[in-house]
Amino acid sequence: MYIKEEWLKSGFVNEPIPADIDIKAEILKLKEEKNAIIMAHFYQTNEIQDIADFVGDSLALAQEAAKTDADMIVLAGVNFMGETAKILSPDKLVLIPDLNAGCSLADSCPADEFEAFKKQYPDHKVLTYVNTTAEIKALSDVVVTSTNAKAIVDSFPADEKIIFGPDRNLGNYLNSISGRNMVLWDGACHVHEKFSVEKIIELKTDYPDALVLAHPECKQPLLVLADFVGSTAALLNFTKSSTATTFIVATESGILHQMELSNPQKTFIPAPPNDSTCACNDCEYMKLNSLEKLYNSLKFEWPTVEVDDELRKKAVLPINEMLRISAENKL
Ligand code: 13P
Ligand code: SF4
């Protein structure tokens, strides 16, 4: 956890939460008092999703951060989401309940190595997934999320040379559905790479009518087997429009909450990971956030997300380009 010196001096870093308070009521009160908006990603715990003002995928969180009139944004998600919100709304106070909420995919792409990689392809456009640091975004032409990636790739002329990073699985998938040959950075998400194709096939014998839904960060054999591939928002929408009643869901388990709320009569089965002894369907970074940390964050207005102004000015350009192409495509 990154702890600023003034937080330590003020003594509130280790402030215990009084046992007798109604934490949900206090969060709602603080939120009103401070004109704050609580934004949560679909991978957050059910209780955080339920108390949030806005729940969405990475694109929706960025779009909301760009337009909210709140004075304060509490981003219950991971660091790159808080950073994107700060880049888009530099004058607002952006808080993230736990600064240790990193992302293995963002970590798989260090800025100095990516810069050297980019230099090998000087005539290529650079498309990067939003799951990156601000430094990587500053090296990019356009940022994408899994909701708008296909539309953004398609917006380039067919013969445009493109580098895509950092997710090799999403990059491979985009190449296969767009007929491109983008040069791929070799990064991945540890949660999405752990789903077991063999166990999903076994599960299908018990639930022959179940449809397999997969996030494009999953490995190629799973994406080939899946009945539908899409971002968290696309997967959720699919469950609403499909006539199927049972779904095997290959992405982080937090998304099941909104699927169940929207479709109380349907059955959702988390896809089994390779290792049945681990809680591998949970992203441990996403799940670092808790109601207690959300409460402290609002109360003490920390930890704050900070982005150096020079860096911000560079990183905002490819994010704005993403928002522009998304709006053009009504995404
Ligand atoms: P979405 O943009 O589809 O919500 O994905 C975010 C993410 O971190 C997937 O692992
Ligand atoms: Fe990053 Fe994977 Fe967690 Fe998404 S699920 S935030 S890509 S580590």
Please provide the count of β strands. Answer: 12
Strand order of the largest sheet: 2-1-3-4
Largest beta-sheet details: 4 strands, parallel
Broad structural category: alpha/beta
CATH superfamily of the largest domain: NadA-like
Task: Give a topology summary.
Elements: H1 5-10, H2 23-33, E1 36-41, H3 46-51, E2 54-56, H4 58-67, E3 72-76, H5 79-88, E4 93-95, H6 104-107, H7 111-119, E5 125-129, H8 134-138, E6 142-144, H9 149-154, E7 162-165, H10 168-178, E8 183-184, H11 197-206, E9 211-214, H12 220-225, E10 228-229, H13 232-241, E11 246-250, H14 255-262, E12 267-270, H15 291-300, H16 309-328
Parallel strand pairs: 1-2, 1-3, 3-4, 5-6, 5-7, 7-8, 9-10, 9-11, 11-12
Iron/sulfur cluster binds next to helix 6.
Detailed description of the structure:
By secondary structure, this protein is α/β, with parallel strands linked by helices. The protein folds into three domains: 5-101 and 286-307, NadA-like (Rossmann fold), CATH 3.40.50.10800; 105-188 and 313-328, NadA-like (Rossmann fold), CATH 3.40.50.10800; 195-270, NadA-like (Rossmann fold). 43% of the residues lie in helices and 14% in strands. It has 16 helices and twelve strands. It has helices spanning 5-10, 23-33, 46-51, 58-67, 79-88, 104-107, 111-119, 134-138, 149-154, 168-178, 197-206, 220-225, 232-241, 255-262, 291-300, 309-328; strands at residues 36-41, 54-56, 72-76, 93-95, 125-129, 142-144, 162-165, 183-184, 211-214, 228-229, 246-250, 267-270. The strands form three sheets. The protein has a four-stranded parallel beta sheet, sandwiched between helices. It has a four-stranded parallel beta sheet with strand order 6-5-7-8. The protein has a four-stranded parallel beta sheet with strand order 10-9-11-12. The longest helix has 20 residues, at 309-328. It is globular. The two termini are 35 Å apart. Bound molecules: 1,3-dihydroxyacetonephosphate (13P) and iron/sulfur cluster.
